[in-house]
């Protein structure tokens, strides 16, 4: 079974790598080293079609998972714990949304470039590059900004700004102390 997995996991990408190599379709164009616009079919076969298949699979898989887990959580837990668990499920649902936002403009740009190769649109290229490079940042906002992380960022920012005489408002000091305690307690346990 493992050898079959390796054959698929390494064989298909290697074969897909060879297609543009032997057709001399790799090159530098519009600020990127990739498959040249003279081979638009390869761009879609190599990247955009598999990308949207994977995004569609993620949407289907995550929505099915959330549907089943939601029913399970609502039937087995009290309301307060169920609400907490459901918030986690909805954060999970944002993963395909982030993928769609980040790759929508790139796909539209490549479709337009395939139809009109001599008429590039700067705005499409800008949106393509901007949102394509924001995927990690969006993932950080959704998954990395827990309550403890936000409290620690506020603490560090408050201390840094206090060095130049600026004081931040709006933080609950009791919450900050509780967060400090839970963070130091977690560090002591590990």
From TrEMBL:
<dbReference type="InterPro" id="IPR022343">
    <property type="entry name" value="GCR1-cAMP_receptor"/>
</dbReference>
<keyword id="KW-0732">Signal</keyword>
<dbReference type="Pfam" id="PF05462">
    <property type="entry name" value="Dicty_CAR"/>
</dbReference>
<protein>
    <recommendedName>
        <fullName>G-protein coupled receptors family 2 profile 2 domain-containing protein</fullName>
    </recommendedName>
</protein>
<feature type="domain" description="G-protein coupled receptors family 2 profile 2">
    <location>
        <begin position="1"/>
        <end position="147"/>
    </location>
</feature>
<dbReference type="GO" id="GO:0007189">
    <property type="term" value="P:adenylate cyclase-activating G protein-coupled receptor signaling pathway"/>
</dbReference>
<feature type="transmembrane region" description="Helical">
    <location>
        <begin position="47"/>
        <end position="67"/>
    </location>
</feature>
<keyword id="KW-0807">Transducer</keyword>
<dbReference type="GO" id="GO:0005886">
    <property type="term" value="C:plasma membrane"/>
</dbReference>
<feature type="transmembrane region" description="Helical">
    <location>
        <begin position="88"/>
        <end position="108"/>
    </location>
</feature>
<keyword id="KW-0675">Receptor</keyword>
<dbReference type="GO" id="GO:0004930">
    <property type="term" value="F:G protein-coupled receptor activity"/>
</dbReference>
<dbReference type="GO" id="GO:0007166">
    <property type="term" value="P:cell surface receptor signaling pathway"/>
</dbReference>
<keyword id="KW-1133">Transmembrane helix</keyword>
<dbReference type="InterPro" id="IPR017981">
    <property type="entry name" value="GPCR_2-like_7TM"/>
</dbReference>
<keyword id="KW-0812">Transmembrane</keyword>
<feature type="signal peptide">
    <location>
        <begin position="1"/>
        <end position="27"/>
    </location>
</feature>
<feature type="transmembrane region" description="Helical">
    <location>
        <begin position="120"/>
        <end position="143"/>
    </location>
</feature>
<keyword id="KW-0472">Membrane</keyword>
<keyword id="KW-0297">G-protein coupled receptor</keyword>
<dbReference type="InterPro" id="IPR022340">
    <property type="entry name" value="GPCR_GCR1_put"/>
</dbReference>
């Amino acid at each position: 079974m493992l050898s079959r997995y390796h054959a698929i996991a390494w064989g298909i990408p290697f074969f897909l790598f060879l297609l543009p190599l032997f057709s001399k379709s790799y090159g530098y164009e519009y600020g990127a080293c990739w498959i040249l616009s003279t081979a638009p079919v390869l761009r879609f076969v190599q990247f955009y079609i598999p990308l949207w298949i994977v995004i569609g699979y993620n949407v289907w898989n995550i929505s099915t998972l959330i549907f089943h887990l939601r029913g399970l959580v609502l039937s087995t837990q009290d309301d307060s714990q169920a609400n907490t668990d459901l918030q986690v499920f909805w954060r999970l649902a944002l993963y395909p949304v982030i993928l769609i936002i980040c790759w929508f403009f790139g796909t539209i740009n490549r479709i337009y470039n395939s139809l009109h190769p001599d008429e590039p649109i700067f705005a499409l290229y800008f949106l393509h590059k901007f949102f394509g490079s924001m995927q990690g940042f969006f993932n950080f906002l959704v998954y990395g900004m827990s309550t403890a992380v936000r409290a620690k960022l506020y603490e560090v920012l408050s201390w840094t700004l206090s060095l130049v005489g600026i004081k931040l408002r709006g933080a609950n000091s009791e919450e900050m102390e509780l967060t400090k305690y839970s963070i130091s307690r977690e560090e002591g346990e590990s």
